Amino acid sequence: MGLWTRIKRSMRALFGGIVEKTEDPELILQQTIRDMRDRIPDLNNSVAQVMATEKLLAKNKDRLEGQVVDLDSKIKASVKMSRDDIATAYIGQLQQAQVDLQKTGHQLEHAQLASQQALKARDNYVLQMQRRTAEAMQLINQSKQAKLQEQLAQTMASFQLGDDASTFDEMRDKIDRRAAAAEARMQLGTASVDTQMQEIEREAMDMQLQDKLLQYKREMGLLPAATSESSPQALPAQGESSVTEGSSGSH
Fold this sequence. Notes:
By secondary structure, the chain is mainly alpha-helical. Helix content is about 90%, strand content about 0%. The longest helix is centred in the middle third of the chain and has 75 residues, at about 85-160.
């Protein structure tokens, strides 16, 4: 092994030990929580920009649709007045407006999909942040308890009880390792459950929004009124019954 390699290894070991000793888990976790919360305004701004693009395209589409209707009326009026030259000019404008309307419609569909994905990503981030915050608070409490245990261990070691002190330290280390292993297994077992709970929460939110949308459409007359699930088929009207009987009699 070369001299330079040995020097680099020694430097890494030295500075790595210094950094590890200066790290305070409580302060690092608290800073991590602050960093996650600080990202929310930037994330909201990004989502707002995506939604603004969607709304701008929707307004542009409405304007083009109105322009198409207006040009169609002008073409008909020009033809009625035997002004083929004016009608031809309006037809050219109409074709261009129709092309622009088609392009804007495709862009609006992509923008709507992007808005939905951005909102879902923002909501998932908030749920993840809330879960991480609760987990960090538990870890901070455990860190405080560990400090108390370390202080107690140092106090016990200062009594110089001989073999009893070493036995105490050895048993404490074994218990700590066992508790850490059990906690790790528990976290692995609950990780998938947390993910499923997030998906269920998102699915429930989407179902509520869809139900509300259908309710608005029914109130505005855009959808037929909901029929009762208890009657799978509606009874025929009186006139329909008579027509059916007459037709069957004729055969």
